[in-house]
Amino acid sequence: MSEHLTTALxxxxxxxxxxxxxxxxxxxxNCRRCANNACGGRPNMKNAGPCQxxxxxxxWAAATTDPSVIASPTWAxxxxxxxxxxxxxxxxxxxxxxxxxxxxxxxxxxxxxGTRTVATTRGEHWIYQxxxxxVNGVRAGVDIKSTMAYARWRGHGTGTLTALPDAVRALVxxxxxxxxxxxxxxxxxxxxxxxxxxxxxxxERGIAMAEQRISEARSAVHATVYRTFLAVLSTHGRCGCxxxxxxxxxxxxxxxxxxxxxxxxxAWANARTALGM
Length: 277
Hints:
Radius of gyration: 20 Å
Shape: globular
Structural class: alpha+beta
């Protein structure tokens, strides 16, 4: 039994959902049956949903505490090639504050309540009891990993878990809401008309096309994801109809092509910046 598999089984026994990571700290890509999300995806941390694939598919959503899955022959192929073990913080009721450099660590020590800390290659993970939305780049060198995200397991660390403080929740600042007018000007209507997103098919078609474009990328995946995010935001991002559920669908498609949650969040933020949003 490999060291990574032994670690994964021990974490699963403590009800921490785990998955293998390949080189570069990224999940394994989807199998052929799950390529392009043809299976319907695996939408939540309990692995319930349309996808019943036994393979290590769908990035963070593959995380599980089921030892029969973790030690299965199907997963064994991934463990033999794995470069590390990851876990889904939200699935364990946790939030990981990823402090990526010494400056970020110093800021946390001055600003935030102490909790369990784990040393990383360049900084520290501060682990709090409680789950919240995952957001990257909440400030310089600081990412939040909880829902729809994974963190690399680097040991149990030191210190005692404390409750997720309001100071960490406050780091997630949502964009100012865009006023949704009942009538907006639409090109070609000569004087205005209803927002096209009030017809659900328009927005649904746009998101579905974006998912397909990302899922079918065979090369330059990073660039494809960024261009697709840019197109979605330029068309659908200014009237207030685009929701977090739509964003989650795009992120899931990108992670199915091997993108990390951090890459997705960075691409989304860069696209927003490019559009002045």
